[in-house]
Amino acid sequence: MENLYVVALILAIVEGFTEFLPVSSTGHLILLGHLLGFDDEKAATFEIFIQLGAILSVLFLYKEKFIDMGQLFFKQGLKPPRHGFSVLHLLAALMPALLLGYLLHGLIKERLFSEETVIIGLVVGAVLLLVADRYSAKAKVDRFDDITLRQSFAVGLFQCLSLWPGFSRSGATISGGILVGLTPKVAAELSFIVAVPIMFAATGYDLLKSYHILTMADVPVFALGFVTAFFVAWLSIVWFLRFLENVGLAPFAYYRFILAAFYWIFFL
């Protein structure tokens, strides 16, 4: 049992640190789970649960933006606003991946959650990061409230790439945001905001399907993972925004290449 707590702590730290970085938290959890021997059905549910903990950190860090969206929605509903990021913008960025994820959920779970597919996702996603990093200097939208509906929808299309494990949701959305004209910081913040409802939907759906395998004995382990992922994700977001503005995306791309090569050579 003690080893289980150690494994849970390691996975939660990795999840919290990588969830919002363009390196694929899902890919890391799949690879690490295989190495630690924690890759059964209950492990998959645990990974979903700690993702929820990481996502909640965004709600606390960006609560003002969510409040602004709510107030704008109650004032004018889904009518396109003249200024500001609205619920309509959020829906535009959400719907492509939500719809495609719903249609392909079973196929993704059955066919794509393997070490080999993660390696492919890491490499292809790294290439996209390098392309986006090269174009980042040309980005013009440097205020979150200046994001257009068209740009939100375009980022939503890029987010569909993250349905492939190892590609990285944040990597796809940040890269997509930069390529449609957002500065890296604004693209990252949009990635964080969009993550909240889509991850709530995904984790809620998976938890409803797998809650029956859990028992009261699992509560302490799951609670430890949830709280750890929450606080580590909080710190990771703050660090990442500073790093992104000063350094860019390229180091994350190189890290992905190195991780993919290392895992392939020594474990596959």
Describe this structure in words.
With 268 residues, the chain is mainly alpha-helical. It has eleven helices and no strands. The longest helix is centred in the C-terminal third of the chain and has 28 residues, at 219-246. The model has no long low-confidence stretch (mean pLDDT 90).
In a few lines, what is going on in this structure?
This protein has 268 residues and is mainly α.
Give the key terms.
268 residues, mainly alpha, 11 helices, membrane, cell shape
Domains, number: 1
Largest sheet composition: none
Query: Taking Cα atoms only, what radius of gyration do you get, to the nearest Å?
Result: 18 Å
β-sheet strand percentage: under 5%
Total number of strands: 0
Structural class label: mainly alpha
* Shape summary: globular
